[in-house]
Design brief:
By secondary structure, the chain is an alpha/beta fold. The protein folds into two domains: 151 residues, Alpha-Beta Complex (Aspartate Aminotransferase, domain 1), CATH 3.90.1150; 232 residues, Aspartate Aminotransferase, domain 2, CATH 3.40.640.10. The protein is built from 13 helices and 17 strands. The strands form four sheets. The protein has a seven-stranded mixed sheet, with helices on both faces. It has a four-stranded mixed sheet with strand order 1-2-3-15. It has a four-stranded antiparallel sheet with strand order 13-14-17-16, with helices on one face. Helix 3 runs antiparallel to helix 10 and helix 11 packs parallel to helix 13. The two termini are 38 Å apart. Bound molecules: pyridoxal-5'-phosphate.
Length: 410
């Protein structure tokens, strides 16, 4: 079947909740993917910052196959060797003392929310239930994570939201100070707002937020679902500010494309979720954890975090050059860090049309925050691949004609 035939079946049999582009992928290798008609694409999106070691890395593929032939699932009624090994590895690579495993970013953030409340409950501080997150944040689609998400469009028609969650403007320490009080269980922030348009928090903001929480007896937590696992050129983005959160949510790149989420916590709050208080059937299943262990081995051998740092600098320079080009009216501002970068598009241009044209010319990127082309390639991407992809982006931007009067509201 070709793309069109698959799409026709999809429209009859899939729910229709996604705005997927009209192309059906069937295979991938490294930074390249291929659709069902054999057309090849350079993937600078990586399944939204997930395919950390590149598509179908042979070591990851064989680790999954080997584990699938040994033990796939046992549940948390018992222990399994792979989850224990992974937790131990992560405690060595991060400042966190204990780990919890789940299946997605939303679930990891649900865990942050529940952990924050339950921790204070266990301390005998029952009124401390308020959760503070940022406007323009994205934390996932389940009800708790959706409530934490500071973007009304995702909540439309889904109310009522979970109670006692408040939002503050991102980056505004005074606004945060005005909200954090003796009822605050936790402040939860992304170090870089990915879905919000690739907007970085300054180190001072994160350090200030940490201090406000300390002074008020609240917990400070980071959602590193998009920024974690080498994406910004550090294993965790928190390293750029030196801030140590009480807990941190991870997912996306952790198992290279296999579904897995995690929460790391410091020793201090590690008793916050007592036995029976939280869990999930698949969480920490041996198959996902074997994949995550293979990802760590590949990270080490291929020095992928270092590569993300180095190639990320190159990507940033190239994007700044596009943004600074006076003949490129569509490109406004280069943002982000490491291999999580964005190029904001002038209001007179239609980002969706630019994205589609870039895709037609064989390069995959995504849109964040409505008007930002987001670049989140596999961490193994090379400078040549970045140059190849950006040459296409540049040609599309150069040929783009404004379709809206600048400043118009539609
Ligand atoms: C920062 C952040 N948190 C949470 C999520 C939700 O993760 P998932 O889609 O795996 O539930 C995302 C997804 O884009 C994210 O970027």
């Amino acid at each position: 079947m070709n793309n069109e035939q698959f799409l026709s079946v999809a429209s009859q049999s899939l729910l229709g909740n996604y705005r997927s582009a009209p192309v059906v992928f069937t295979r991938g290798k490294g930074c390249r993917v291929e659709d069902v008609e054999g057309k090849k694409y350079l993937d600078l999106c990586a399944g939204i910052a997930v395919v950390s070691v590149g598509h179908c890395h042979p070591e990851l593929t064989s680790a999954i196959a080997e584990q699938a032939g040994r033990l796939m699932h046992i549940s948390n009624l018992f222990w399994n060797d792979r989850a224990i090994e992974l937790a131990q590895q992560l405690t060595k690579r991060t400042p966190f003392a204990k780990f919890y495993f789940c299946n997605s970013g939303a679930e990891a953030n649900e865990t942050l929310l529940k952990l924050a409340r339950r921790y204070h409950f266990e301390q005998g501080d029952k009124p401390r239930t308020k959760i503070i997150t940022a406007l323009a944040s994205f934390h996932g689609r389940s009800m708790g994570a959706l409530t934490m998400t500071g973007q009304a469009k995702y909540q439309e028609g889904m109310g009522p939201m979970v109670g006692d969650v408040e939002h503050v403007p991102f980056g505004d320490l005074a606004a945060l100070r005005a909200k954090v009080d003796a009822r605050t269980a936790a402040v939860i922030l992304e170090p870089v707002q990915g879905e919000g348009g690739v907007v970085s928090a300054t180190p001072d903001y994160l350090r200030g937020a940490r201090k406000l929480c300390d002074d008020a007896g609240a917990l400070f937590m980071l959602d590193e679902v998009q920024t974690g696992y080498g994406r910004t050129g550090r294993f965790l983005a928190r390293e750029w500010s030196g801030v140590l959160p009480d807990a941190c949510a991870l997912a996306k790149g952790i198992a290279g494309g296999f579904p897995l989420g995690a929460v790391g916590v410091t020793e201090r709050i590690s008793k916050g979720l007592p036995p029976g208080s939280h869990g999930t059937t698949y969480g920490g299943n041996p198959l996902a954890c074997a994949a995550a262990l293979a990802v760590l081995r590949i990270f080490d051998r291929e020095k992928l975090v270092e590569n993300a740092d180095r190639i990320g600098v190159h990507l940033g320079e190239r994007l700044r050059a596009l943004a600074g080009d006076p003949n490129l009216a569509a490109a406004v501002e280069a943002r982000g860090i490491g291999l999580l970068r964005g190029l904001s598009i002038a209001p007179a241009f239609e980002p969706g049309a630019l994205l589609a044209e870039i895709r037609k010319r064989g390069v995959l990127v995504s849109i964040a925050g409505g008007n930002v082309l987001r670049f989140s390639p596999p961490l193994c991407v090379t400078a040549d691949e970045i140059d190849e992809g950006l040459a296409v982006v540049e040609s599309v931007l150069r040929e783009a004609t404004p379709i809206k009067a600048a400043g118009s509201r539609s």
